[in-house]
């Protein structure tokens, strides 16, 4: 089983340490696209128009400045870099050792800069969203789609894919027909903040499970112990399952 997560807008880094080693990251076949995105991102971040081009507030110049030192900033485990509502609910640091090992195997973060990383991959904090179109590269979801389609199915293996991503990141690797019968999209009703929190809790619950669920109905059964769930069968051939998840009332 793999659980697909979006990154967070907010990110943290370390003050000291060695820089990112591109050769040490998971999915080395993504290296060339990672390099192209980093080069284009640096050029954009040098521009006075960087906030508009990156779709962020002009008050976030310090965040944009991080894009200029991606090759020298101290590398930090992705589990620490990504913060915010979803990752606070996931609380990787609070997992017991066994669950942390399962999280390292089961969780994949789809990233506009790195393509996909595991929690233990050491990356640099950056400011870039999948919905951005970089000069010379175009829309990032379109750029990453064929690259991730080649690289990530092997990570899924014969297991279930639990998709907890937001729409922009889901567009970078939509469910392929070959995986549709064991792919489930987690759908959470309500405001964005609440949905992020619930998705973080879902990912945490799946890391706590000692044995990986072997089918989409098994995923629904595991999550049904902690959440109110409704499983919808695929709407047609080649379409994934959909799982509506809501935290039960307190």
Could you characterize what this model shows?
This protein has 250 residues and is α/β, with parallel strands linked by helices. The chain has one domain (2-246). The chain has 11 helices and 11 strands. The strands form 3 sheets. The protein has a 7-stranded mixed sheet, sandwiched between helices. It has a two-stranded antiparallel ribbon with strand order 2-5. A hairpin with a 3-residue loop joins β3 and β4 (115-117). The longest helix has 17 residues, at 192-208. The protein starts with a strand and ends with a strand. 42% of the residues are buried. The model has no long low-confidence stretch (mean pLDDT 96).
Instruction: Kindly report the average pLDDT value.
Output: 96
Per DSSP, what share of the residues sits in E-state strands of 2 or more residues? 15-25%
- Radius of gyration computed on alpha carbons: 18 Å
Structural class: alpha/beta
Number of domains: 1
Termini separation comes to 30 Å
Globally, the shape reads globular
Low-confidence stretches: none
Task: Please state how the strands of the largest beta sheet are arranged side by side.
Answer: 4-3-1-8-9-11-10
Order of helices and strands: EHHHEHHHEEEEEHHEHEHHEE
State the total count of DSSP E strands: 11
Instruction: Please bin the fraction of helical residues.
Output: 25-40%
Major beta sheet summary? 7 strands, mixed
SS field, number of helical segments:
11
